[in-house]
Amino acid sequence: MAIISWLIPTLIDGSGGHRTFLQHAAYLEEQGHRSRIYVEDVDQRSSLELRKNIKTLFGFDFEEVYSGWDHIEPSEMVFATIWYSAKVVRDLPFECVKAYFVQDYEALFNPMGDGFLFAENSYTYGLHPITIGRWLPHELHERFGVEAQYFDFCADLKVYRRLPEVEREKSVCFIYQPEKPRRCPELGLEALGIVKSLMPEVNIRLFGSKTKGRVWFDHQHLGLLNLEACNAVYNRSSVGLCISSSNPSRIPFEMMAAGLPVVEIHRQNTLYDFPDSAMLLCEQTPESMAAGILSLLEKPKKREAMSDAALEFMSNKPIDHGLDQFGKAVKALLKGKSPETSVPERLYKKEAFKAKKGTVLSRAPSSIHKGPSMDAPGRLGFLHPKIRVKVRRLAQRIRRLMA
């Protein structure tokens, strides 16, 4: 069995990305490997404190947790997990399998410039990418000629499931994360504002962040939810809304596992992992997104058919399926074998759903976000971690003074 090290970014409460790579590190330990967790930590906390934080925030308990990336001990395999850790892995002075756990096309977290290009460069360092989902292998092959292995988006079917005793309401739930530009929080709010204007009786539920943001219509802000609470919301809702512009989120797959019809944007990154029978991918305008949501709210039979298709699609994608795919990729790399790779084809074959021309839809322009948040993680990704933390803290103080 091997020692496998993971270079992970600063811990963020509620981060799905952190939960995913920590889950896979824990899986490798279950298979008999030793997982070493190196946390990017500008506050230089003790290993014991970081270990406790990982357990508190994400429920995983690792014996070997270390602060910082300056002193990586020799290991048989080392994973980069964020673009600026890829260079650290590339330059390690000892022989090992240098791997790259890729969850997003992270260049898209940054405006076009240094941060964007540096993030793209990370795919050219000769690391072995293992990606979540089918779109990223396609993108890495097309853009850089890099071959990647992938594992499917799956869900814990013991948690995310249909609850027959729960009755669905006329409601929409939206994963609203204003601190993450790639989750398109303003586009989602604009679409839901239109829905609420045209169908006032619909209950709108926002979840996924402690930040309430500037929301001008009546809604419920649920904040951060545990996994069971998320499943309960998915079971009460009629439509789920999740927007992700840099790779699919895991959220729509968990929604589908609960039998919830989901609306997303129709872009290249959403066409390779979603089935067209259980998802509605819309043109990326607020009007078309709203029209898509309204079309589902107005057609119970269509929702029911999508719900059945969603449950069927996810029935063979339990979390163990994805973990097994990942484990096989790791095993092949550790044995020095050339992994079998193929460029996936798109699953979603339909055209984008569009609002009819001339449709009059209302909104509240005064509420529109005026620009990117200065403390959004991706916007400052090109800065040195210590500078990045200082800028975020300063931005937070300024907002408190202006509140």
**What is the tally of helical segments?**
12
Q: Which structural class best describes the helix and strand composition?
A: alpha/beta
Give the strand content: 5-15%
CATH topology of the largest domain: Rossmann fold
Please summarize the sheet with the most strands.
7 strands, parallel
Q: Point out poorly predicted stretches.
A: 364-379
Number of domains: 3
Determine the mean pLDDT.
90
Radius of gyration: 21 Å
| Proper CATH architecture of the largest domain | 3-Layer(aba) Sandwich
The proportion of residues forming helix, as a percent range, comes to 25-40%
CATH superfamily membership of the largest domain, which one? Glycogen Phosphorylase B
Reading side by side through the largest sheet, how are the strands ordered?
3-2-1-4-5-6-7
| Number of extended strands | 13
Outline type: globular
Briefly, what CATH class of the largest domain?
Answer: Alpha Beta
